[in-house]
Amino acid sequence: MLHKVLIANRGEIAVRIIRACKDLGIGTVAVYSEPDREAMHARLADDSICIGPASSALSYLNIPAIMTAAGLTDCDAIHPGYGFLAENAGFAEIVIESGYTWVGPSPESMRIMGDKVSAKQRMKQASVPLVPGSDGAVADAEEARRVAHLAGFPIIIKASAGGGGRGMKVVHSEPRLASAFSMCQSEAKAAFGDDTVYVEKFLEEPRHVEVQVLGDSHGNVVHLYERECSIQRNNQKVLEEAPSPFVSEETRQKICAAGVAAAKSVNYVGAGTVEFLMNPDQSFYFIEMNTRIQVEHPVSEWITGIDLIEWQLRVADGEPLAFNQSQIKRKGHAIECRINAEHPFKFTPSPGKVELYHAPGGRSVRVDSALYTGYTIPPYYDSMVAKIITHARSRKKCIRRMQRAIDELAVLGVTTNQELHKRLLANPDFQRGDFNIHFLESWLKQLPR
Fold it and tell me: Which CATH number does the domain 4-103 belong to among 1.20.1250.20, 3.40.50.620, 3.40.50.20, 3.40.50.2000?
């Protein structure tokens, strides 16, 4: 087994990985920026080392500093978590070429799936359903116009190297196409250093459904069923659940098979997520693959009983999967609420000192967090500070359990989005599973503030 793993990340995911390593008897190294000196992940790891100042560019994105830390602490593997360098194929190559084990897919898989144009081409070869649109990159507005007339308005122009909702423009009519195309190219160049864009039909009322996959270096790939991720704001997920309350059993088999086919087409090793948009008639289309562990992975773990971080580590070390698809059974329902240090309805960040932190507990309640009483949340990084996950036999009972857990949560000294989750969980449309990706933003506009 691996000897010592450096976690090139921070916050709750670093804590999650440290715990998984300790369960397997693997040593851990935390890296931290100067403001994170007293962070939970730096306290829990066997070794910890400062890699730079507050700026992510000078710390958590500082590849030379991370590699130096690995050398100084006698590591033999690096786990990137999610965000920061997790989907940076160049970083993965440096790790591998330096003689360390990379806990993730191959750089080649990351490059294919990280570029939306090459990913679409590979999915087409694998017979994975694609949103109608361009076959590849679109060179200019005139070509975009031709694609738009074939696919039909509205369309969406997307940056090939994009992600996180950036580098996208929706166009509802031809007169606005040229200016939108130019703006999207400019934004893509500024955000990603690559102005390559492509065009797709814009689906107006879809759901966001994704499939969790897991592969090993022996050619085995399985799925851990689907997750419903339609509760989102500005293309950022707020609440996720598994399985989807909308997907029929017939569609479930089809979309999960498509997820496995997508992973196999790039010889995928490790944990990854294949994301789809689904229409009201349950037709679905590939949109992208996240070549890393996802924030919402706990809901898949709970309905299958499989520890995804543990298996990331095992397959990175060369182990074959210890189970096949027929042995993975779905049990009950799981929901995850993301707790952010922000105003619940204005969405402005709320960093500062945590005067009191009390995590919810009780049966089938899990909390993934790096918070503790006295911790100062720095203003430099993502505002998510905890994830509350509940599990129950039915979705109805799972929602009730989550309502109890949210009520029990206490974070004093900073503002969180706890109240947003309280109101969302009580919403009748949410409770019926009657929503799409526009639901949360539409509902928020109606709420009294």
Answer: 3.40.50.20
